[in-house]
Amino acid sequence: MTPSDDAFSKGFDLDLTKRILGYVRPYLRLAVTGVLLALFTAALQPLPAFLQGYAIDQALTPFLSGANTDSAALLRLLTLIVLGYITVQIVEFGLTYLSTLTIGYLGQNVLRDIRANVFTKLQRLHLAYFDQNPVGRLITRVTSDVDAINQFITGGLISMITSTFLILVYMTVMLTINWKLALIAFTVLPVLFVVTNFFRSKMRLTFRENRLQQAIVNTKLNENITGMQTVQLFGRQRRSALDFDHSNRALLTANSNSVKWFSLFMPAVAILGQLSIALVLYFGARLILGEGAGGTGAGAALTVGTLYAFVQWTTQLFQPIQDLADVFNNLQAAMASSERIFGVLDTREEITDKPGAQPLGHFRGQVDFDNVWFAYDSQVQADTPDTDDRWILRGLDLHIQPGESVALVGATGAGKTSVTALVSRFYDVQRGAVRVDGTDVRDLPQYDLRRHIGVVLQDVFLFAGTIEGNLTLNNPEIPHERVVEACKYVGVHEYILGLEQGYQTEVRERGATLSTGQKQLLAFARALIQNPDILLVLDEATANVDTETELRIQEALTRVMQGRTSIIIAHRLSTIEHCDRIVVMRKGRIVEQGSHQELLAKGGYYARLNRLQYAQGDAAD
Ligand SMILES: Nc1ncnc2c1ncn2[C@@H]1O[C@H](COP(=O)(O)OP(=O)(O)OP(=O)(O)O)[C@@H](O)[C@H]1O
């Protein structure tokens, strides 16, 4: 966890609050209704205890003291009070239900809006952003950080209003009925507020530590489960178990601290509650008995019923006081979360469409790299010296004619994949230009550019869904016939038909049940269905594919390339022998280019690589 993940270090911030409230504005009516309902509910709270006290004073005490012995009349009065009591409870039930529903609904709607905003923002962000921000962290933004904002609204702002109101209602009622006893009942409240605040902030700190340790345990679990094959292959079980045990123990300690504070908190609150009741009982009884001045109790300053009601009100006052102590913590925790969410929302979109960018319409498929200098490092600018190590492409000049197939070859890290990423404008170049059909890719709408480019990635990404959904990318406009045609063309149709539900078979676990070769063929079919003008193929090092599948892939590739500008990165030279041109790259520069035969004749890097691979092939045979 980075310092920016610290959910508890941020103080209250008015600007952030205003921004969060901006999300509530569309639901203002809902918010006002929710708060009003909650206030009505609050106003009813002291009534049940009042009615109970009233029953004691008006129906029971007169009978017991002999002041009124008409038991039938007293029973009628008691029935009326009980009916009133039940009515109050029913109304309170209805109001609580409606206010909880309204406020919950408000919170959930705000959450949905923020989640949607973050999601659409993420979709617009440049790939470099994802290089720098791990997936886990981004998911936290959309899930727990967004939840913290809900807490801010419901547990923070709304709770602040309703709890304060409730406290005021109780206090007013108590002061009006007997101000002396009310003041006695209030003496413990400030202590309760301070104690609750202290414990809650302690618990928040331990909770934060829990979350941190839990995240570490999760990461370890994730790594070990996904890398189980490597763990078992290298006999790393014991070491991994020790490592896991270390984190597991740290989590235990963190959880034990939470439990420690929590188990202190509950009895502390309970003892304060009992203390205030004891005070109310003692001083209330003194008031009833005539304030220790030898009074007889008759005509005393307090009735038994009122004392009974006071005991209840004192206990009930505890809840809003505790809630109020929590409000501050809730607000503070949500501040850091909202700051991080707005951090994502405010990230500058580096790859944007120019205002008025016009689509090309028809693509011929010409691709030109004009003296391209490129680095992933955003610190590298156009004026950075040529000698800087951070440059990935160094003055690349590459011109590909419509329909031409070009293969990029070179040692790992030479910059081949970067070339293909630039054609799709996943990154912007620092110097020079990448052009498609003579137009700088920065002048084209991204959607239009990428619509014409088909990419077959090294690691074929399959979404959860059916095989057909994966092939069409859930575009309902693509007819089934086109899907079948493409699959037949690349030779994967028979295989799909052999599956239990054919094209409607669900792909599970990102296609873990499919072989590498099958996934490759599906990727070709997917690219073909989109009918791109330019094709970028980044081949898997097909070492673990059997010869027959390799031949199939090879055949599919040749077919898919037909009539399209194609840029291929292949680690197996046999895959690219038939390409129109082979471009050999080294450290971001082109070192040689020509056809397979020409390059062999030249006897340079390519010829050496070729000899090496054939020698390996022979040895393997
Ligand atoms: N997303 C990225 N962020 C930062 N640096 C990157 C990124 N992708 C690649 N690089 C760096 O750029 C250099 C060129 O990488 P590139 O993937 O283009 O090489 P390549 O020739 O395709 O290599 P390979 O054959 O191994 O796929 C490498 O040094 C790599 O570390």
UniProtKB/TrEMBL annotation:
Residues passing through the membrane, by range: 27-51, 71-91, 152-173, 179-199, 261-283
Provide the protein's localization.
Cell membrane
User: What is the predominant subcellular site recorded for this chain?
Assistant: membrane
Write down the PROSITE patterns for this protein, in alphabetical order.
ABC_TM1F, ABC_TRANSPORTER_2
Question: Domain ABC transmembrane type-1 spans what residues?
Answer: 32-333
Q: How does the protein associate with the membrane? A: Multi-pass membrane protein
On the tree of life, the source organism's domain of life is Bacteria
- Tell me which InterPro entries the record gives: AAA+_ATPase, ABC1_TM_dom, ABC1_TM_sf, ABC_transporter-like_ATP-bd, P-loop_NTPase, Type_1_exporter
> Where in this chain does the entry annotate a coiled-coil region?
none
GO MF terms on file? ATP binding
What name does UniProt use for this protein? ABC transporter ATP-binding protein
Protein source organism? Deinococcus navajonensis
